[in-house]
């Protein structure tokens, strides 16, 4: 009916839009009104803007945007800037208040600083990032230290731990290019009980981290579940197996989360893709056989030095799915450096930070043994914080 462009259909469509019981039917009626693109629909859509259903309001706004150059329509739409619904706010912000442009010099977005390429810095990542220019990284993938569950990550309190992560990810946000990705590998952890008279404590790290990430400007995109073989994880239900008493059931934790975020922007993903030349896009395409679900079944990797090492396959998927060849990828808690080695093998550059000297030295051994750097023009460069600051100058 909307495609017929016949204004006599407006009363019928309005009646459906306001009174039908099905939201999708109402939304389609509003959409049909908008397709008429006639000044006669302005008053009708303005009335529909008072609806309680945000999906209906959004469809009415879409129809009215055709007439946003009209002063009265523009004033009405701008009044929705502080609407309680976040999607309505986002649409109005993009249409009226965004400074984003969809055009940039070709390939300007993909450019990286040479002094950051294939560099590993020993030091507190917060201090290191002070010397990194804003909008340097295309992708960050990391697994933060476990809260008081490993010898290398002891904190006075859970809040101190969260405050550290908040600082790191705020700085990472500044150093990430517009519209590019942050992927955080975390899982709830258990602090064992002190004695039989006390209970253990389970901390929901992914969910607490998520809250401050979205508030600082990371848009939540996906949750990927990393599933491990049950034989590879600690057995938590041995006691329950013996007595089978209700309330004491404890499942074996075979999953971790890969929480996927994108630096908030008014631009769509296509804008990021257009920053690359055709050859780079073609060479970066993901081959057949990619994972189609959000459950990734990958066995963990065990290491004699580091107790929490990324599996190569986990890194390979993240690099290929969320970056282009030639991009600069970042891991603020590098550990054994697996992410960097995988990135280089896939023709990306890496920037890694690690504050534990034992793991920094271990990375030197790992990278020396890797054959992926034999043909590269930029060999891995291991620097102290002071050396990196001098290099940046």
Shape: globular
Mean pLDDT, to the nearest integer, reads 88
Strand residue percentage:
15-25%
Percent of residues in helices: 25-40%
Q: Ranges with pLDDT <50 over ≥5 residues?
A: none
Largest sheet: 9 strands, mixed
Distance between the termini: 65 Å
- Secondary structural class: alpha/beta
Number of helices: 16
Helix-strand topology string: HHHHHHEHEHEEEHEHEHHEHEHEHEH
Let me know the number of strands.
Answer: 11
Topology:
Blueprint lengths: L9 H10 L3 H13 L6 H7 L5 H11 L6 H8 L7 H12 L21 E4 L2 H5 L7 E6 L15 H18 E11 L2 E3 L9 E3 L1 H11 L2 E10 L10 H6 L11 E9 L5 H5 L4 H7 L10 E3 L14 H11 L5 E4 L6 H8 L3 E6 L2 H13 L11 E4 H8 L1
Parallel strand pairs: 1-10, 1-11, 2-3, 2-9, 6-8, 9-10
Antiparallel strand pairs: 3-7, 4-5, 6-7
Helix pairs in contact: 1-2, 2-4, 3-4, 8-9, 13-14
């Amino acid at each position: 009916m909307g495609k017929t462009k016949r204004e006599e259909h407006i009363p019928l469509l309005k009646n459906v839009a306001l009174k039908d019981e099905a939201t999708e039917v109402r939304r389609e009626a509003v959409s049909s009104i908008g397709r008429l693109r006639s000044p006669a629909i302005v008053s009708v859509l303005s009335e529909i803007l008072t609806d309680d259903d945000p999906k209906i309001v959004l469809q009415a706004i879409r129809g009215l945007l055709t007439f946003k150059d009209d002063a009265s329509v523009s004033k009405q739409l701008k009044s929705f800037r502080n609407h309680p619904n976040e999607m309505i706010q986002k649409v109005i912000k993009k249409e009226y208040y965004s400074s984003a442009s969809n055009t940039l010099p070709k390939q300007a977005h993909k450019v990286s600083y040479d002094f950051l390429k294939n560099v590993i810095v020993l030091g507190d990542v917060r201090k290191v990032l002070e010397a990194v220019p804003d909008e340097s990284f295309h992708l960050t993938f990391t697994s933060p230290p476990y809260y008081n569950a490993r010898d290398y990550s002891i904190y006075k309190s859970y809040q101190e731990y969260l405050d550290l992560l908040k600082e790191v990810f705020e700085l990472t946000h500044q150093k990430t290019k517009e519209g590019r990705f942050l992927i955080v590998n975390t899982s709830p952890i258990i602090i064992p009980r002190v004695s039989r008279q006390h209970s253990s404590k389970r901390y929901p790290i992914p969910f607490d981290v998520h809250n401050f990430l979205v508030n600082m400007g990371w848009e939540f995109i996906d949750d990927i579940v990393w599933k491990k073989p049950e034989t590879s994880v600690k057995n938590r239900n041995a006691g329950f197996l013996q007595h089978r008493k209700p309330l004491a059931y404890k499942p074996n934790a075979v999953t971790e989360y890969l929480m996927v975020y994108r630096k908030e922007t008014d631009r769509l993903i296509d804008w990021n893709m257009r920053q690359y030349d055709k050859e780079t896009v073609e060479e970066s395409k993901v081959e057949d056989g990619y994972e189609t679900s959000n459950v990734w079944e990958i066995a963990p990797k065990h290491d004699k030095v580091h107790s929490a090492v990324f599996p190569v396959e986990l890194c390979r998927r993240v690099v290929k799915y969320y970056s282009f060849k030639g991009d600069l990828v970042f891991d603020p808690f590098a550990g054994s450096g697996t992410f960097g080695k995988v990135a280089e093998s896939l023709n990306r550059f890496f920037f890694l930070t690690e504050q534990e000297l034992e793991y920094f030295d271990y990375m030197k051994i790992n990278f020396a043994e890797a054959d992926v750097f034999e043909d590269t023009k930029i060999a891995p460069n291991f620097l102290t914080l002071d050396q990196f600051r001098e290099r940046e100058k």
